[in-house]
Specification:
Layout lengths: L1 E6 L4 H10 L1 H4 L3 E4 L1 H11 L3 E3 L7 H10 L5 E5 L9 H13 L4 E2 L2 H13 L4 H6 L1
Length: 132
């Protein structure tokens, strides 16, 4: 399955730790991320990550395009709700696209862990049927 990953600056270390903890599961799937997040994930896990531009430079839009074409199966977006972002419309666009295309979306660590464990159990295999 294709896993999209974005982390705001205040959550990048958390994303790295998440990817270290679940490296075994993530290694069985294809990872997509905004530029800086992808680079940081690669550095700590040695997993290949398809990297788009940095989020604020259009990476969130590029990932949104993948979601819009139903090419992402799970989205993990560790966001910082306390800091206003200048690119807030792109952030909200990701949420809307996931809702429109029935793509499971985690915006915090607790939900990300639930999704990744469900993925490993096969609970999200329905995505393959949904994409057809």
């Amino acid at each position: 399955m294709n896993i999209g990953m974005i982390a705001h600056d205040a959550k990048k270390k958390l994303m790295q730790n998440f990817c270290i903890a679940y490296r075994g599961i993530l290694s069985k799937h294809t990872l997509y991320a905004t530029g800086t997040t992808g680079r940081l994930i690669e550095e700590v896990t040695n997993l290949p990550v398809h990297k788009f531009l940095a989020g604020h430079l259009g990476g969130e839009q590029q990932l949104g395009s993948q979601i819009g074409h139903n090419q992402i199966d799970i989205m993990i977006f560790l966001r910082d709700p306390l800091t206003k972002k200048s690119h807030e419309p792109e952030v909200n666009n990701i949420f809307q696209l996931c809702d429109e295309h029935n793509i499971p979306l985690a915006t915090n660590l607790a939900t990300a862990e639930l999704l990744i464990k469900a993925l490993d159990r096969g609970d999200l295999d329905w995505r393959e049927l949904y994409k057809s």
